Request: fold
Amino acid sequence: MKSQKEQSTFFAILSLGYGGAEKRITEIASAYLSKSQGYLLINGEQKVASQRKDQTKTAISNLEKNHQLIATPIPRIKSVTFRRLTSLLLASFELLKKRPSHTHLALGAILLAPIAKLTRSHVTIEITSPDNANFVQKFKNVILPFTDNIIYVSESIRISLNTNIKIPARIKQDVYAHPFFKIRQLPDIKKERLVTFCARLIPRKNGILFARSIKLALETTDTPFEVAIIGDGPDRPYIEEILKQEIDDGRVTVGPSPNPTDIINRSSVFVSLIQPENYPSQSILEAMNCQNYLILSNSPLSTRFMQDNGITVALNEESVASEIIQAMRDIDKTTESGKNSLEFLRSAYSSDLIIHQLRALHSKA
Reply:
């Protein structure tokens, strides 16, 4: 039987960005490791990015203070492919040195499963999105033979992956009870006639549809309001072209922000149109923390975010534009409804429950 000293959990996330999934797993690791031995491994680029986000500074600081953060050096290589390979190689060395009893891998780090198994570690991989599920499907022969547990952020992603590939029966599969989110006390400021959209600007997030909806709304209402599209990605040039006049007029801004919470906290309305499913979007939870009224596409699980704090809409320009116009016309009612977002978040989402669920999963090794 292993001694207590030998029991440790090694979390690893590897990617070239630092978005909602990276932030969430950083905070999960910080909360989990506050009462356990172990480490969180990130790459140097992620560490730099995390310091620009107020909500993860504390988590990173706590891990560093307890000597539980491993940040691999930033490769001096321009090629994205070679940067990814270098990060994997450096992470492999760290994993082999630490030889943890449990390994929890997410995003690009799931490719470390064979290395983790070399250390006789119990291996859990976390599937954070449909894109991540596609990644597992592509590299299933590298990942699945060395995996003991899979945990999914939503049931829909679990169903999708199991439909596309056969998961070996020996692998235990679980789904988080609900998204992990730590509620924060934010400055109480007056809400503005501001609509926000915060996501990676890729096709399944429907930023182009949102841009067309905003253009239609601004052209057909006399009610003044502004729009912030927070994010970057391949769809950004198309969005900027659609909204060129509105951007030039100062009514719309498009681009990433080092701290999107500051913008969302000023806004009254938050829009999310993710396909195939909005749930369990970290951006929506952030908007709820900021007391925003929600306009969400009518995917099956969108209502899990709602309790008298928003509405679901069909994925077409007219429906989205109509709800935005209505919300802006009756701004006082919209602002009051937005307060319900925070109340519902407090009552329905417990970060402690997720940590307990994860400990139970790891303890079954």
Q: What stands out?
A: The CA atoms of residues 177 and 353 lie 8 Å apart.
